[in-house]
Design brief:
The complex comprises the extracytoplasmic solute receptor protein and the two transmembrane proteins. By secondary structure, the chain is mainly alpha-helical. The protein is 74% helix and 0% strand. The longest helix is centred in the middle third of the chain and has 33 residues, at 69-101. The chain is elongated, with a radius of gyration of 20 Å.
């Protein structure tokens, strides 16, 4: 979470500098927009994996809570299995995306697009591992019922 907070602070500082440079100095830095976009991509994907690990991802509790008690455990297990499969799919398709875009340059930055997208298979792998850990341990979904 600290890395995400630092990335968000860096993104806001970069965008603030870009706006200041554009409207006050009349010369917007070319690297600012792509750097902020890169930080946002990384924050989003790593935040998703962190949400699964910490149990603060978006979920619907009412469905599980309305089931008979004997079905709640299998329902949570099925949900964790589906999240693990989604993570595995994100991992494999993310690798394909990284390989396909490795030779494409990020405009204004000394990176390839594939390097920028490395976070996708990384987060997919983390999502799968975290969900499988919850599945093996039989962990219940954290959180509370209702929107209040």
């Amino acid at each position: 979470m600290r890395c995400a907070a630092l990335a968000l602070a860096a993104m806001m500082a970069i965008l603030t500098w870009q706006v200041f440079a554009r409207f006050v100095l009349g010369n917007s830095p070319a690297w600012a927009e792509q750097t902020a976009l890169l930080l946002m991509i990384w924050m989003t994907f790593l935040g998703t994996a962190s949400g699964i690990a910490e149990g603060f991802h978006i979920r619907i509790m009412e469905g599980v809570a309305s089931l008979p008690v004997r079905w709640r455990g299998p329902a949570v297990g099925a949900a964790n299995l589906l999240v693990a499969l989604a993570g595995a799919l994100t991992f494999w398709l993310g690798i394909d995306l990284v390989v396909a875009t490795w030779g494409n340059a990020v405009p204004t930055l000394p990176l390839s697009r594939g390097m920028a997208y490395l976070v996708i298979p990384l987060s997919g792998l983390l999502m799968a591992v975290f969900a499988l850990r919850k599945l093996v341990r039989g962990e219940e979904i954290d959180g509370s019922l209702g929107s209040a």
